[in-house]
Amino acid sequence: MERSEEYIKNERKKEWRVELQKKTKAKDRMAIERVEMSEQDPNERIKSQRIEVNNGLSKEQAVLEATRCMDCVNPTCMEGCPVSINIPKFIKYIEKEEFGKAASVLKETSALPAVCGRVCPQEVQCEQKCFYVEKLNQPSVAIGHLERFAADWERESGEIAVPECAESNGVKVAVIGSGPSGLSFAGDMAKLGYDVTVFEALHEIGGVLKYGIPEFRLPNAVVDVEIDNLSKMGVKFVTNYIVGQTATLEDLKEEGYKAFYVGSGAGLPRFMNIPGENANGILSSNEYLTRVNLMGADSEDSDTPVLRGKNVVVVGGGNTAMDSVRTAKRLGAENAMIVYRRSEEEMPARVEEVHHAKQEGVEFLTLTNPIEYIADENGRVKQVKVQKMELGEPDASGRRRPIPMEGSEYTIDATVVVVAVGVSPNPLIPNSVEGLEVSKWGTIEVVKDKMQSSIPEVFAGGDIVRGGATVILAMGDGRKAAANMDTYLKEKYLSEKVEQ
Amino acid sequence: MNKIVEKENFSEKVVKIVVEAPLIAKARKPGNFVIVRVGEKGERIPLTIAGADVKKGTITMIVQKMGVSSQKLCALEAGDYVTDLVGPLGKPTEIHNVGTVLCCGGGVGVAPLLPIVEGYKKAGNKVITVLAARNKDLLILEDEMRKHSDEVIIMTDDGSYGKKGLITEGMEEVIQRENIDECITIGPAIMMKFCSLLTKKYEIPTMASLNSIMVDGTGMCGACRVTVDGKTKFTCVDGPEFDAHKIDFDEMMSRLGGYKSEEQDKMDHFHE
Ligand SMILES: Cc1cc2nc3c(=O)[nH]c(=O)nc-3n(C[C@H](O)[C@H](O)[C@H](O)COP(=O)(O)OP(=O)(O)OC[C@H]3O[C@@H](n4cnc5c(N)ncnc54)[C@H](O)[C@@H]3O)c2cc1C
Ligand SMILES: Cc1cc2nc3c(=O)[nH]c(=O)nc-3n(C[C@H](O)[C@H](O)[C@H](O)COP(=O)(O)OP(=O)(O)OC[C@H]3O[C@@H](n4cnc5c(N)ncnc54)[C@H](O)[C@@H]3O)c2cc1C
Ligand code: FES
């Protein structure tokens, strides 16, 4: 996966790359303005949870944007990518209008490029390290948009290449959890010839990609294509199966599974433990988003209800908070408001989501924190008591610590409050597997870069190890774990077989 | 997809359903529940595992018709399939040999009580069971309860069967008559609240099994939060049984109504 600098340099010297480099002068490349992603009209798109906001780039837009890329000798963008995608190579294939090949380059390192192109925080990863930003103080090449373009082109062309899989080696491995981490692990192991089964607690495959991130950002169809592909590669999926409850790891061992990958996520919602928080109408972002995204509660023919309100307050400043507040708009809220204790600068959400939320009329109340909820006589929340904050010294996260301002309390009307202040690791596996080393935060301890836990045949990655991260990191962990588990299993089972 | 192998109507409102689920049948313990979903647009609803047959690989659920989802489930027949079934969920009941146990069930709460009564009996306890229903027709599982209890007392609101009166009256009679070491109560929240107040007066350790609103049933959403001993707990993973004397029943009852008007809309839509 990690390729040497040498290799990257040699790739850059290939004939087709050199030809492209010569075709357009650097000055002309730099004169091109960064592409603007076309979007659905904010007033139209908030009428449905299922209208994707970004339209994607046209072929012409993509090729032009790819031309901006300087094909740097030292592609710093790659340093910013957690899985070191060969960024210049895929972009140059787009410039050359060989879109299928561009997609193949992405797939060398990323299991879910169509997903990452939509949800990665590119502005703090690859794009932040782009030559244009670092050296010219100009907008970066739109790497994320191009990634999405190449992946979508492949999907829409109907020419998705099902990766070749090695001959079956008959060794059974189990994956616990079907989020991006589990899916990428499953794909790599299937390619290596393993007999892979993914166990998922919910009734749908996809983890946060399905129950958390709304369709206006990531259509289910995009995720389903990837899942279909895995099925074609022979990966088996079992839904409604909670490892540790429906059956234990030991039971699975008895069924012949030789090794396990735990990608069970950080799905536990945190609350703030402030007075009145258990009033009706106050719910976690997980509950709110699950009702809508997984259960389809935005549609009338779903049996699952969801709370709607004229005034909706969402507490938090991450992607989850943005997804919740924009969902509230789509469920008909007149006033949907973010209440966040730090300033906008510290918000962990992707910049694009904040921008889109503002376009859609979401209000932002920053440097403000809820301290109490006031309910009506039926126990339904009617007001949020908030307190103003100011920023002090930086804390452990490097962000400036919010400090309450005495005497600054006031109330806001709201009949629905969504609490999106973070999640904790899912304790199901840590609690049910004896001998598994777990940190004091409840994350599974693994040997870094190997993703192997204190139990040799148990590997883990994604949010259950990181305690809440990103899709691309979760995916990268899955791929690392696959490579290392392969080595482990080959030594333990397959070399013996050869000798016999 | 899990096949329904048997269905029996206990009353107009209460149905027994036996479903194929071999792994759950094997893994379940008294007090566990499952989440069931009927149809692609279906809601996930929690139901207690009222019994299981490991050999046949089936579990039994006893369902009371409430709103849309329970009615859809009750409308299925033997041979039909439930779309999704997951479990076993929740912490099992802690069953020990403590001496004499008073088991109190009201309404459809009698169903989840059955495996617990069975468990207590098997553990060597003297089991006295008090069952309550509005009237004779709504009483369920009497024979099964008799099989596993040393004594069964029946209370009906209208006196159409057993004794006339509330469940607490039946309980108090037993408590005054003999020493009770432990009590368990399952039924409508209001009933559990009054059972709990009663046993508190007599200082009898009491467990209540809560039927909070749930979505995932695995600790992921917090829809099922309750306050126990001043702390927020998730019914699905920390419960469903809690020390009854520490539960904030008023908050719990209020939370059960948290989606009342939305549920009503779904019902109106269902009947259209
Ligand atoms: C609303 C929301 C928006 C987000 N937006 C972004 C974004 O824009 N960009 C970004 O990069 N990241 C985003 N994230 C974060 C990102 O989604 C996560 O970091 C990522 O999904 C973690 O992947 P995972 O595979 O580790 O776990 P998950 O995606 O959480 O999947 C874990 C799966 O395991 C299942 N499971 C758990 N326990 C068991 C068990 N015992 N047996 C069987 N199955 C089990 C769960 O049901 C779940 O489906 C967002 C998160 C949320 C909640
Ligand atoms: C751990 C657990 C075990 C359970 N075991 C059983 C069982 O064995 N048999 C059984 O019949 N039911 C059981 N229940 C209750 C059952 O889940 C609900 O009756 C069901 O979800 C109602 O769904 P519905 O769509 O039919 O009704 P809804 O339309 O959701 O509700 C109809 C009316 O009932 C109220 N209501 C909603 N949810 C509940 C609830 N959980 N309890 C009481 N009132 C509610 C609503 O406010 C509404 O007025 C259990 C619940 C829990 C949490
Ligand atoms: S039902 Fe979702 S946390 Fe309990």
From TrEMBL, chain A:
Enzyme Commission number, as recorded: 1.4.1.13
Keyword Oxidoreductase annotated: yes
Pfam families with a match to the protein in the record: Fer4_20, Pyr_redox_2
InterPro entries assigned: DPD_II, FAD/NAD-bd_sf, FAD/NAD-binding_dom, Helical_ferredxn, SudA-like
Residues of the FAD/NAD(P)-binding domain: 172-478
Gene3D superfamilies: Alpha-helical ferredoxin (1.10.1060.10), FAD/NAD(P)-binding domain (3.50.50.60)
Alphabetized UniProt keyword annotations: Oxidoreductase
MF annotations from Gene Ontology: glutamate synthase (NADPH) activity
Chain ranges of the Dihydroprymidine dehydrogenase domain: 51-158
Key word Oxidoreductase present: yes
The protein's name in its UniProt record: NADPH-dependent glutamate synthase
Originating species: Marinifilum caeruleilacunae
Taxonomy of the source species: Bacteria, Pseudomonadati, Bacteroidota, Bacteroidia, Marinilabiliales
The encoding gene: gltA
TrEMBL record, chain B:
Matches recorded under InterPro entries: Cyt_c3_hydrogenase_gsu, Dihydroorotate_DH_Fe-S-bd, FAD-bd_FR_type, FNR_nucleotide-bd, PyrK_electron_transfer, Riboflavin_synthase-like_b-brl
Entries under Gene3D superfamilies matching the protein: Nucleotide-binding domain of ferredoxin-NADP reductase (FNR) module, Translation factors
PANTHER family found in the cross-reference section: DIHYDROOROTATE DEHYDROGENASE B (NAD(+)), ELECTRON TRANSFER SUBUNIT (PTHR43513), DIHYDROOROTATE DEHYDROGENASE B (NAD(+)), ELECTRON TRANSFER SUBUNIT-RELATED (PTHR43513:SF3)
Domain FAD-binding FR-type: 1-95
Pfam family, one: DHODB_Fe-S_bind
Annotated protein name in UniProt: Sulfide/dihydroorotate dehydrogenase-like FAD/NAD-binding protein
Organism: Marinifilum caeruleilacunae
Domain of life: Bacteria
NCBIfam families from the UniProt entry: PRK06222.1
TM ranges: none
Range of residues in the leader sequence: none
